[in-house]
Amino acid sequence: MEKSEYDAVVVGSGPNGLAAALEIARTGRSVAVIEAHETIGGGMRTGEVTLPGFLHDICSSVHPLGIASPFFRSVNLSNYGLEWVHPRYCAAHPFDDGSAAVLDRSVDVTAESLGDDARAYHRTMDPWLDVWEFLLEELLGPFPLPPRRPFLLARFGLQALPSAQTYVNRYFKGERAKAFFAGMAAHSIQPLENIVSASFGLMLSLLGHVVGWPVARGGSQSLANALAGELTAAGVKICTGWKVNSLDELPPSRAVLLDVTPRQVLDITGERFPDAYRRQLGRYRYGPGIFKIDWALSEPVPWRAEECRQAGTVHLGGTYEEIALSERLIGQGKHPEKPFVLFVQPSRFDRSRAPEGKEVGWAYCHVPNGSTVDMTDRIEAQIERFAPGFKDCILARRVWSTRDLESYNPNYIGGDINGGMQDLLQFFTRPTLQLTPYRTPDPGIYICSSSTPPGGGVHGMCGYHAARTALRYAFNS
Ligand SMILES: Cc1cc2nc3c(=O)[nH]c(=O)nc-3n(C[C@H](O)[C@H](O)[C@H](O)COP(=O)(O)OP(=O)(O)OC[C@H]3O[C@@H](n4cnc5c(N)ncnc54)[C@H](O)[C@@H]3O)c2cc1C
């Protein structure tokens, strides 16, 4: 890239980096994006990582947050080829008796699959169906700035702020609903006894009903490419294959937005910030990591429960107790024998992902941060438990330890895919304790990654809020 001057330079092309670049470019300012990899997209990349013709989502695959994101919805992504594909069921949760609960677009169908707790499920979900957009705006807002709808948020907090453990005991009687909710809440990547773990479960289930859990046709890379199409149309310069080690390398600009986590912010900015701020960034906490596997499969996964064959995502963990134990052990730095596994089968619904008759599989389980334990056998045993014969379908596999993930993308510190622990304390201190967390003490430097509110996931809202902050403080607009 020529060292010409830009209004803003964004380091990193994840969903948040691309969103930040676009929001600034929309105001007519010149913007450059610099990405370490040869391809753009951060957590939205797709590649042939097993066999030729098998397209694997290397990181994110399922996009309830992507399709619901107020920022993504402000971009006409379909103009650039993005097509959301909706599986018959958003998710399925199989049990050892061969049956399964499902998250369906219909609350009725979902409730029915939960047996005795059908009415209870309605009671927990129905109040949110008409106000979900307002609620989402608050939850994806620039926390901890005061909410625009405090009463709505307080109502949500009353239901969802307790731990998932308290939630299931308060609302459900039967094992099916408790286990189903545990699978949803475990997306929080923290013990189910932790406050706020229930809020992930409620929000993800609600999103299933109101927008679905789609995958992107052709892979998540299609979402990155669609965003890049809009960026290029807005005149943004994208430069790949450049790992930024220091601010000194960057072309001159009025604002630099860093789509990286606090540890990398410290490396890149060196001595630029006062000691007190550097100490705060240094205290930022990373969460558990993940161990991930991509498979090329000779045929569809032979799930015992028919519902699982028709679901995009399958939650494998059996009962509430098992899932809670799995997440608790990880919180204690241990590795469960029967880990909770998130399995995704996008090629069942998007035939562009695999050769005729063949399939791709994607799964991960949580592990302690920085873990070096190989979880392949434990993950495959959990799948085999609900789909006997699965192992016979494996043509090839690619495993990703926490170290592999971090060397693939330096934002995944110790395998943490959310850019930092998402517990109650770090909701208020993401990445430091201040009202506009995207700002740093230098008015020309901003943090726009998922280490800022509202946190992990492919939604671009951290980047959007960081860009609005930079426009206000660096450009006075
Ligand atoms: C295996 C896995 C599964 C996931 N599944 C889902 C899912 O199904 N749905 C969902 O919503 N979310 C999912 N996520 C989480 C989601 O991918 C992340 O939360 C999201 O990508 C974070 O976006 P970001 O822009 O903050 O950072 P990233 O997407 O991590 O992007 C950061 C970018 O910055 C680049 N970079 C870093 N350092 C430098 C440097 N020094 N110089 C230049 N470039 C640099 C990186 O190469 C990367 O491209 C998953 C993540 C993983 C790893």
Describe it.
- The protein is of the alpha/beta class and 477 residues long.
- The protein folds into two domains: 6-48 and 58-83 and 216-284 and 417-473, FAD/NAD(P)-binding domain; 84-215 and 288-408, Polyamine Oxidase, Chain A, domain 2 (Alpha-Beta Complex).
- Helices cover 35% and strands 16% of the residues.
- It has 19 helices and 16 strands.
- Strand 3 and strand 4 (56-57) form a beta hairpin.
- The longest helix has 14 residues, at 197-210.
- It binds flavin-adenine dinucleotide.
- Flavin-adenine dinucleotide binds next to helix 1 and strand 11.
- Residues 11-17, 34-37, 42-43, 59-63, 65, 243-244, 259-260, 264, 290, 292, 364, 405, 409-412, 417-419, 449-450, 456-458, 462 line the site of flavin-adenine dinucleotide.
